[in-house]
Amino acid sequence: MRKATSTDESDGALLRRGMPGGAEAVVKVITPSPERRRLLAARMRRHPLRYAANARSGRVAGLRPLPLWVPPVYLLHHRLVDVQGYVSIDNNRYSVPNDLIGRRVEVRQTKEHIETYRGPRLVAVHRRVLEPTGRKYRLPEHVYKRGQAPPRVDSAPLEKTLLERLPEIAEYLQALKKHYPGHYLTPRLRRLLEMLNDYPRPVLLEALETARHYGLFDLERVEKLILRKLAREHFQINPRGDDDE
Fold first, then answer.
1. What is the pLDDT at residue 127?
2. 101-134: buried (b, 16+ CB within 10 Å) or exposed (e) per residue?
């Protein structure tokens, strides 16, 4: 444990400090007298800029310059990966890993590259194509060899969640699975779950029952049915403009 003792003198104090290994060091601390402190304060009041510049130069002299770093400039897009594993930017389609099919990603369009992020994780980098060609650009690591199946997205958890929250649509889900087999089903199940969170339950059930009856599996058209019914029931407008009595 360090021990410190001080001995007052006319021009300062002596501090005895414990050092590693039991050694001791004596440090002399200069303490200005009250008269000298008043003199220094008066000089600082007369020449404040000079003292500020000296203090600043003393601080800057002990600092190291920071490395020059310019953050990249990019145009930010939010995209939904299509069923073939591509995102579209300026009419050009760039590949991403197949396990991101049906998921939302963040695309950063820089001067030379197209960078795709899933949250904070960089998943794909393409050379940017300036002209809108309408072509597909797939990286070598996104090409699967013959006989090598791409990783599939398991739709079972989504289906289980939908059936737990809305067991009345079990028959419609079975028909939807037949219409969209394999990994084509996963984006539709995610859309159904979003609709369940967004719209009232009775209206959603009525729209899905109508869709099942007519064999309608386009969820955009199903959503239009929901919005049309909500508009009739909750957003009625009096064409005469008469006040309700």
1. 95
2. bbeebbbbeeeeebbbebeeeebbebebbeeeee
- Whether 86 has a pLDDT exceeding 90, the answer reads yes
CA distance between the termini of the chain:
88
CA dihedral over 155, 152, 141, 86, signed as positive or negative: negative
Structure tokens at 206: 């009525």
Using alpha carbons, select from 137, 13, 39 the residue that is nearest to residue 85: 137
CA 36 to centroid of chain Cα atoms: 59
pLDDT at 162: 87
pLDDT tens sequence across 141-182: 887 666 555 555 556 788 888 888 889 988 998 898 888 887
Distance between CA 107 and CA 118 in Å, rounded?
Answer: 9
CB 183 within 8 Å of CB 156: no
Q: Which residues contact 210 (CB under 8 A, 6 or more apart)?
A: 216, 225
